[in-house]
Amino acid sequence: MENQELENGLKAKFKKNWRLFKQSKLGMTGLTIVIFFGFLAILQPLLFLTNIWDEGTYHPVVGYDSEQISRTVVECPDEYPTEKYNTKEDCPRVDEVNIRYLKAFGIDAEVGDSYFSNVQPAPPSSRHLLGTDSLGRDIFSQLMEGSQVAFLLGLISAIIGVGISTLLGTAAAFYGGKLDTYLMRQSDLVLMLPSLPFLFIISAFAELKVWHLAVVLGTLGGLGGSVITIKSQALQVKVKPFVDSARITGGSKRRIMFSHILPNVAPLALLYMVFSVTGAIASESVLSFLGLLNIDMSWGIMIYLSQTEGFIFTGLKYWWLIIPAGLAVTLLAGGFYLVGRGLDDVFNPRLRRR
Amino acid sequence: MSEYALEVKNLSMHYDTLDGNVDAVKNISFNVKSGESFGLVGESGCGKTSVAMTLLQLQPENSVITDGSIKVDGKELIGLSENELRKIRWDSISIVFQGAMNAWNPVIKIGEQIREAMREHNPESSKKDNIEKINELFRMVGLDESISERFPHELSGGMKQRAVIALALSCDPKIIIADEPTTALDVVIQDQILNEIKKVQELLGLSLIYISHDIAVIAEMTDKIAVMYAGSIVEIGPTKSVFESPKHSYTRALLDSTPSIHGEKKKLSSLDGEPPSLINEINGCSFSPRCPSPTSGCRDQTVEMGLVQVGEDHFADKCCSECV
Amino acid sequence: MADNILEVQNLTKHFEVSNSVFSRNKKIVKAVDGISFDIKAGETLGLVGQSGCGKTTTARSLCLLDPKTSGIVNFYNPTTKSMESIDSISEDGMRIFRRNMQMIFQDPYESLNPRWTIKDIIKEPLDIHNIGSFSEREEAVVEILRTVGLTPPENYLARYPHEISGGQRQRVSIARALVMKPKFVVCDEPTSMLDVSIRISIMDLMINLAKNLDVSYLYITHDLAVARYMCDRIAVMYNGKIVELANTEELLKNPIHPYTKRLISSIPVPDPTYKREVYELTQNDLDNVYNLSDNKEDLFDTGNNHYVATHKIEGLL
Fold it and tell me: How many Å apart are CA A197 and CA A185, to the nearest integer?
């Protein structure tokens, strides 16, 4: 009888980790959410490419579609309740328009006329699954566009951030001395910084597009607290016998740092990467909501528009302008976080139950 | 009143893991008389620590006892409630763990920790009585009384281990299980501690179950031994008899691979490969892949297993006893 | 008359330990407190002692992992065919030194990089020192795998450490240490974490390789029985100093220093009928040894290549 099932290399290791990940309910929930939004992100360009959707109508920024409906002109009374209307909010009804409103815009009309107008924003219908916004643009398309932005932003900033923090953390652990002291003080400084106000200041100086924001978020994240955690992990690796072995054999410092220590710090770094995506998505939505970013369309922009146009305070009347975008931000940010928790189970055997 | 302090019959246990069932303990049976010293020998993964944990019903959550009985002084342990077990543990049967020196709470003084155990099992005992008892135990294991007032980090490894033995004795158990109590200790200290254990055992008439992979220590400390491999007992009998005429190939391999500083420098042999995975079901003899002299029955794994008598009170696996 | 591979004179290694964060008093721990020994080509010298005696620190100092505090270490340079001091070594000399000195570690689970394949692990020394062409290096790896008993080698090249057993991992460590055919290997308890039944096969492998490749070992262990099996000579260490140094059988049959006597008599014997008597140390015995010589620095030569330390030792009684 040979040794127990000798798996072959990376493939089996991946399969085992996948099985462990599947065990984690949190992780799988998160992954489902992330895959769903990923699918949305890919779906939009596909729909355009295959001409299922016409760009003129469905483009999230420049598309336009609107229904014309006819409404009866009425004059809303001053006192309520009356025969027809119970309260002030009931007049005009959805199929009516107040003559005073038209007169205010200089439009001549008489009570009883049929007034034709465009329905903007339009509620969800068979043509527009989530309705349209005040400029007649398809909300669903905007949602998908926002998904693309979120993924791009999240992943780029995460990669930048993790790249920086891994390099710095490992260098601090490996070289020690003055470099270590400097990097730790730098981390402390960045940690102390209130990140959102800092981002406000930056956006005041520069016009931030998606790419710029990704770099800024990534750099901020990379220089912060994760350097300290990665450093401690690198320190643990540094004292392992196989590193001693490389030193004895005569390996150069660069070789030891890059070929021996870094690869063993990588799993932890990956974990941080996933968590930092959450922060990136949330930050974008806040900054867009405050109108500080120069992005054409994103979930944050969607909420920003609904606020500046006054729809936010209409309660649930125009729900499709607010809820999809808000929910998307929450779900995707949360989804990445849950994936991180699932990965934590995989990489941190002490947390496992068996 | 049973003839035996401990009776284990047909004990079988497996762990429920992600990869399947790990059969850690397969059909183990042995008896220990009062005052007798019983050794459980085997290497990593043979199941001896699992047996120790099961004897105290301290197995981890994912373990399942599928068969067998454990009787301490005639009373069955398997199936008892946690409350009843708590009364029996430390009172009738206690344990000195491997690495027990690190099991001390670093912020509580040694004496207080032992008194805590004593209070748990004997709530009516007075503090004065307990302190007196601890002092007596310390004397027995060669510790000064003042150790009671010290914190664990102030003691050396050997002292901590001695204190652990005192802790194990604090509630007057009839049986002590010692699971590799002297690993990581200086050879000289190990010798002293083994002496203390023997002295205490004789003085109090205790039964000792000594678990180790160290053949030499087992030879000196035990009256009767069982050799474990891949979850089963492959040979069991009086220590002298097993050392003099080992009947199982694995026992012989263990003895042949132990270097000694005494006598002539003899030629030693070694085993290849490693113990089998306990996840897959093993047919026939689990040792046959590594056996230096397997027969056709062993190789084809068609041989019937089971212990047969090979000497007075001395049993070995049927398979090996036939190809001597 | 074999030549010396290594000459150590009065090696010391001190560690500074501060009592607390605020205290300026630094306590000095003399982990290695002046030891001297030579190792000849092809010889295996055992360094035996209990934990904390300084044997691992000695190993690390010799391999330049933690630089020594003081003392002379001369190493045989095969290119210039002369003994060179480590202190005044040139960059070229350092490279030759590194090529000829390797170390095998105790823990089979932590001494191989878990992210590297077996092939890369064994090939690394050749890559670092630029030995041979690319294909020659691959061949050397296959060859050494065969030599250490991991056959067929092709089965192991692409594997990762977590896929093989502890014994196999130690064989990989041995392969890596010996792939450059060094003159000297420090072995830090390489079998103490392995199963008893496979230790002998690893030790036999190392003995064979020593013969075939003309390698010297400094074999560090706490187990005298293992030292007896592996070593030509044994040095017993206590508290940072060597207390006795002699040929193996001579040391075991006629130990002179009381500490050695007590150590030998404390070791359990795998024979239930053997009546072991523990040697009781007395101040008288210690005094007899102290009085052997006035020179407390060097080991006293009692003849027959058997040396004893005559300095005062604390904490034995």
Answer: 21
Q: What is the pLDDT of residue C295?
A: 82
Out of A3, A19, A20, name the one closest to residue B274 (CB): A3
Please name the residue of chain B whose CA is at the shortest distance from the CA of residue A22: B18
Q: Is B37 left (phi over 0), alpha (psi -120 to 50) or beta?
A: beta
Nearest-10 crossing angle of helices C118-128, C134-147: 120
pLDDT in tens, A84-124: 777 777 777 777 788 887 888 788 878 888 888 777 777 78
The verdict on residue A320 lying in a domain is: yes
Q: How far is A349 from C30, CA to CA, in rounded Å?
A: 39
- In-domain check, residue A334: yes
Contact A354 B274 (CB under 8 A): no
How many domains would you assign to chain A?
2
Averaged pLDDT score across all residues of chain C = 89
Q: Is the pLDDT of residue A311 over 90?
A: no
| Same domain assignment for residues A114 and A141 | no
> Measured between CB atoms, does B117 come within 8 Å of chain C?
no
Band of the pLDDT at A1, cuts 50, 70, 90? very low
Mean pLDDT of chain B: 85
Query: Is pLDDT at B83 greater than 60 in this prediction?
Result: yes
List, in order of start, the domains of chain C with CATH numbers: 4-19+28-308 (3.40.50.300)
**Residue A145: strand, helix, or coil:** helix
Asked if residue A255 is part of any domain, the answer here is yes
Please give the Cα distance from B95 to B84 (Å, whole number): 17
pLDDT tens per residue across span A26-57: 888 999 999 999 998 988 888 888 887 777 77
Identify which of B18, B273, B288 has the shortest CB distance to residue A354.
Answer: B18
HEC assignment per residue over chain C:
CCCEEEEEEEEEEEEEEECCCCCCCEEEEEEEEEEEEEEECCCEEEEECCCCCCHHHHHHHHCCCCCCCEEEEEEEECCCCEEEECCCCCHHHHHHHHHHEEEECCCCCCCCCCCCCHHHHHHHHHHHCCCCCHHHHHHHHHHHHHHCCCCCCHHHHCCCHHHCCHHHHHHHHHHHHHCCCCCEEEEECCCCCCCHHHHHHHHHHHHHHHHHHCCEEEEEECCHHHHHHHCCEEEEEECCEEEEEEEHHHHHHCCCCHHHHHHHHHCCCCCCCCCCCCCCCCHHHHHHHHCCCCCCCCCEECCCCCEECCCCCCCCC
Among C197, C204, C225, the residue with its CB nearest the CB of B271 is: C197
CB contact under 8 A, A244 and C165: no
Distance CA B144, CA A65 (A): 92
Q: Which range of residues forms the domain containing residue A172? A: 13-44+137-351
Instruction: Verify whether the Cβ–Cβ distance A5 to B16 is below 8 Å.
Output: no
How many beta-carbon pairs below 8 A join chains A and C?
69
Strand C70-77 relative to strand C82-85, pairing: antiparallel
What does the pLDDT look like over A142-196, one tens digit per residue? 899 889 988 988 889 989 998 999 999 999 998 888 999 999 999 999 888 888 8
Q: A21 with A110, same domain?
A: no
Residues C158, A8: C-beta atoms closer than 8 Å: yes
Which of B 235-294 lie inside 8 A of A, CB atoms?
A: 273-274, 276-277, 279-280, 288-289
- Ramachandran angles phi, psi of C163, nearest 5°: -90, -5
Across the interface, of B18, B277, B288, the residue whose CB is closest to A4 is B277
Measure C110 CA to nearest chain A CA, in Å.
6
Query: For residue C236, what are the β-bridge partners?
Result: C48, C244
